Amino acid sequence: MYTQAMDTLREEGGDKPPLRTAEEAQLQQRFDNRIDAGEFIEAKDWMPENYRKTLLRQISQHAHSEIVGMLPEGNWITRAPTLKRKAILLAKVQDEGGHGLYLYAAAETLGTSRDQMLDALHTGKAKYSSIFNYPTLTWADVGAIGWLVDGAAIMNQVPICRCSYAPYARAMVRICREESFHQRQGYDSLLVMMKEGTEAQRAMVQEAVNRWWWPCLMMFGPPDDQSPNSAQGMRWGIKRVSNDTLRQKFVDAAMQQAEVLGVSFPDPDLRWNEATGHWDYGKIDWSEFWRVVGGEGPCNRERLAARVKAWEEGKWVREAALAHARKSDLKEAA
Amino acid sequence: MISSIKIPAAPELSYLLRLADTCLISGQRLGEWCGHGPILEEDIALSNLALDLIGQSRALLTLAGERSGQGYDEDQLAFLRDEVDYRNPTLAELPRGDFAFTVLRNLMLSTWLKLMWERLRDSSDAELTAIAGKALKEARYHQQHAADWAVRLGDGTEESHRRCETALATLWLYTPELFEDDSVDAAATAAGLGPAWSQLQEPWLAEIGEVLGEAKLAVPPAPTFRSTGKRGLHSEHMGYLLAEMQYLQRAYPGGAW
Question: Which residues in chain A touch residue B38, judged by CB atoms under 8 angstroms apart?
Answer without folding.
Answer: 310, 313-315, 317-318
